[in-house]
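Let us work through a complete example step by step.
Step 1: write down the sequence.
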Amino acid sequence: MEEKKLGLGNVVSISVGLVVATSCLVSLGEGAGTLGVTFILAMVIAMLLNMTTIASLSELNALMPNTTGGLAQYTLAALGPFPTLISMVGGYIICNTLSCGVEASIFSFSLADIIGGNIPSIVYTLIMTVIILIANLRGVDMFAKIQDVVAFLLVGSLVVMGFIGMIGMGTGVKINQPAVLEADFGSIASMTAVAFWLFIGAEYAIPVSKEVKNAKRNVPLGMMIGLFLIFIMQSIMVLGFHNMWNGENWRIQRHHICYMDMQCLETQVRYG
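Step 2: predict the structure and record it as tokens.
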């Protein structure tokens, strides 16, 4: 029997690394600019809701341990091939196809700005694609090692930036503004939908459960720990935003964008 190579720490790294992305920063900015530090309450609600999802998927994984895991396998068992095809093509393949190019562009443009020189930005994307390809071909052990490093760097850099903002050591001008911009339950509940996006993706650790030691314990526990670590990290970021980001200007810009969108929509309705 092939020895299982992944432990609890690897599951945590996979869960964290697949959740934390550039989209998290957008959602954090939206929430912090709208509610202030009370956005943390919306994050608590969203984290608990995602934990119920994790618990449900972990139970399905325990009931069907011989499948590769993931929503596709469970949808296939429950609803059949056609609904599974629709859900996977619409919910995953199309979304990933559209988003991968954007994320690759952000990565390549950032490296090109940092390194400089005359190297085309697409070269960095090709190099990273080859590295990821080789890592996947080498097996799950190599993937886990790379994921551990990536997750540590992601979380570590964001925590450091959050602390810098919290204590006002950034190069920008420290802003004096109320910590709480909105505190009513309606506003917090409405922003829970935004906060929900900060935790989506932890369940992607389930497909590697066959390679995890004591999977019935380590897979759900690792995903739960990953969600909690993400919550702590993003709470620090929200507290850092308070000192370095003008929430009032954010709300004015957001309302202006919404007003311009409504004007464009009205013009299209009137004139086609």
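Step 3: interpret the result. Residues 8-271 form one domain.
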